[in-house]
Amino acid sequence: MTTAWYDAPSHAAGAALVARLAEFPGGTPDVDLRARGVRVPTAEGIAGVARELGLVANPAGAQSLGVVIEAAEPAAVRTFWQTALGYERPDGLDDPLRRDPKFAVRRLEEPRPLRNRIHVDVVRPSAAVDEARAVTGREPSGAYGVMLPDDEGNEVDLVPGDPLPGTTDWLALFAAMTFYPTSSPAQLVTKVAELADAAGIPLMIDVRAEGVVLDSGKDQWEDGDSADPNFVALATQVEAAAKDLGLRADPARLRFVQFGIDAVDVPAVRAFWLTLLGYAEDARPHLTDIYDPRRLNPVLFFQELEEPRRQRNRIHFELDVPEDAVAERVETALQAGGRLLDEKPYLVADPEGNEVVIGARKTCPST
Questions:
Q1: Which residues does 230 contact at the CB level (< 8 Å), separation at least 6?
Q2: Beta carbons of 348 and 333 less than 8 angstroms apart
Q3: Other beta carbons within 10 Å of 72
Q4: Do 170 and 177 touch, CB atoms closer than 8 A?
Q5: pTM, 2 dp
Q6: Per DSSP, what are the bridge partners of residue 141?
Q7: From residue 209, how far is each of 183, 287, 361 by CA, in Å?
Q8: CA–CA separation, 34 vs 38, rounded Å?
Q9: Long-range pairs for 98-102: beta carbons < 8 A, 24 or more residues apart
């Protein structure tokens, strides 16, 4: 489904759209509410309601970043990643709550035995991590003792999360998250939006048919090495509001996903992805993270590689943008130091050979 992004001045302004959409036949569609905007499907009538509320469409928010894993034996590799990610849907590697990046597994045309320069970090509740390790039959290894390889050597750091100190409903999964199952999300969304605006703390509020996911964004709940008291205060206020509405948290299905890129020249490779994706730099010292300023797409981080790996990765990215933006985005990639490898579809390599396919989404209608 195609989506549109609307700039908004506050959580509450976006929550007003959620309340209106709750009146639509079939109930509220998937909505990603942020402190400065909202992403909604391009279904008939939604754009008109957004305009009535004074929300301004901004095509810069219409992109999605996913990952493709190439494999000699796709079935075995797909099964491993389905287990590691907890992507339970039988039709593919899609997050059942439609929040986290899409994965695809495709047949590899030539063997590539060496390690990838791209790897995946997944943080899940501890019980889910224990279960995934048991099902895959692999013992964790690597520098942090959390790495699991699939059958062909593609790596995931599968990290167990912990309860968020000072709260009852939240987990620390790099981001602080909770999930409230409900078929009537508007009241909770409205209240959480008010609380977040009053606290001056941006939240990711994702509305689904299954319920409402609340997410701080990576590390945004921290104050140095501990939980930020201001965030904990907001989290406990949210818990009280949910309790008043008769809701009970069920965060077992939540996860955090990010992607790491190994590079000899980290500044050059990082600059390429920063420019291509329109991301922002994490300002904290000693970190290489870049992130979507709208918090709609996954974080990327970069690690220094002592020696180059000349082999093509078995993992590459797929970037979907509106159809009328594809040519401009390809040109942006080339100006940022990329190389065009193919035009059908557009396949671009960064300065050290990590690849991204830039493809088209349908342009959002103006209904």
A1: 199, 201, 223
A2: yes
A3: 15
A4: yes
A5: 0.95
A6: 147
A7: 6, 36, 24
A8: 6
A9: 98/30, 98/208, 99/32, 99/206, 99/213, 100/255, 100/256, 100/257, 100/298, 101/64, 101/65, 101/66, 101/67, 101/257, 101/297, 101/298, 102/64, 102/66, 102/67
Query: Which DSSP string do the residues of 140-192 spell out, in sequence order?
Result: -BTTTT-EEE-TTS-EEEEEEEEEPTT-SS-EEESEEEEEEE-S--HHHHHHH
Tell me the H-state helices in the chain: 11-21, 46-52, 74-85, 126-136, 186-199, 229-244, 266-277, 326-335
Render pLDDT for 168-227 as a digit per residue (tens, 0 to 9).
999 999 999 999 999 999 999 999 999 999 999 999 999 999 999 999 999 999 998 899
β-pair partners for 357: 318, 347
Which H/E stretch holds residue 121?
strand 118-125
Give the position of tokens 């590899």.
108
Nearest CA among 195, 41, 218, 12 for reference residue 123: 218
**What are the φ and ψ backbone dihedral angles of 184, each rounded to 5 degrees?**
-130, 80
